[in-house]
Design goal:
The structure holds 2 protein chains of 2 kinds. Chain A is mainly β. In chain A, 0% of the residues lie in helices and 51% in strands. In chain A, the strands form 2 sheets. In chain A, strands 2, 4, 5, 6, 9, 10 and 11 form a 7-stranded mixed beta sheet that branches. A 4-stranded antiparallel beta sheet of chain A has the order 1-3-8-7, with no helix packed on it. In chain B, the strands form 3 sheets. In chain B, strands 2, 5, 6, 10, 11 and 12 form a 6-stranded mixed beta sheet that branches. In chain B, strand 8 and strand 9 form a beta hairpin.
Chain lengths: 114, 113
């Protein structure tokens, strides 16, 4: 079945550590996105990529980094510069840079700082 | 700047009654409007979208939404609510379809048996 796989489902980070969240899709979608979800704040865009080897900052990119070396993969690294990383992280994809198509979402990764 | 507002954090409705979840948007141009639903600890699932054409859009699970350009609204509706409709609902907007979706803060729907 085609879809988006996010791993791990739960992740614990110690203070000062970098952690990487995985997002893989087998939908042959061009565009991929990372959103952060906090209670009462909805989804906020971290980074997005509309084509391989290119990506753009979203509204809350500080403290995060991404790469897009392959069409099917868009990993997100939460660096130690992100002071409040505890949140639910959602990856999404869409064909052909959006153009009115809805997003397909992964099941999310819940990151907790310990 | 583009934005979308969901004025209600919580909507409570009795099972069998009609439900409405409100959404308004701010735009300079023609919006692409979407509704998504989220169940606990899961990703978002697509319900329906408006791009152009008929202002009443029908989607999954018996939901529909009405696009009102003059009021810049895109309210989600269902004639008869089910307990299983209880979830978090997000309205989202893209402008020209070529920009990332901007999401509202979400509305928690609780359907009471």
């Amino acid at each position: 079945d085609g879809g988006i796989t996010q791993s791990p489902k739960y992740l614990f980070r110690k203070e000062g550590q970098n952690v990487t969240l995985s997002c893989e899709q087998n939908l042959n979608h061009d565009a991929m996105y990372w959103y952060r979800q906090d209670p009462g704040q909805g989804l906020r865009l971290i980074y997005y990529s509309q084509i391989v080897n290119d990506f753009q900052k979203g509204d809350i990119a500080e403290g995060y980094s991404v790469s897009r070396e392959k069409k099917e993969s868009f990993p997100l690294t939460v660096t130690s510069a992100q002071k409040n990383p505890t949140a639910f992280y959602l990856c999404a994809s869409t064909p052909d840079r959006g153009r009115g198509d809805g997003y397909t979402f992964g099941s999310g990764t819940r990151l907790t700082v310990v | 700047a583009q934005s979308v507002a969901q004025p209600e954090d919580q909507v409570n409705v009795a099972e069998g009654n009609p439900l409405t979840v409100k959404c308004t948007y701010s735009v300079s141009g023609n919006p692409y409007l979407f509704w998504y639903v989220q169940y606990p600890n899961r990703g978002l699932q697509f319900l329906l979208k408006y791009i152009t054409g008929d202002n009443l859009v029908k989607g999954s699970y018996g939901f529909e939404a009405e696009f009102n350009k003059s009021q810049t609204s895109f309210h989600l509706k269902k004639p008869s609510a089910l307990v299983s409709d209880s979830a978090l609902y997000f309205c989202a907007v893209s402008f020209s379809g070529n920009t990332p979706l901007v999401f509202g803060k979400g509305t928690r729907l609780s359907v009471i048996a």
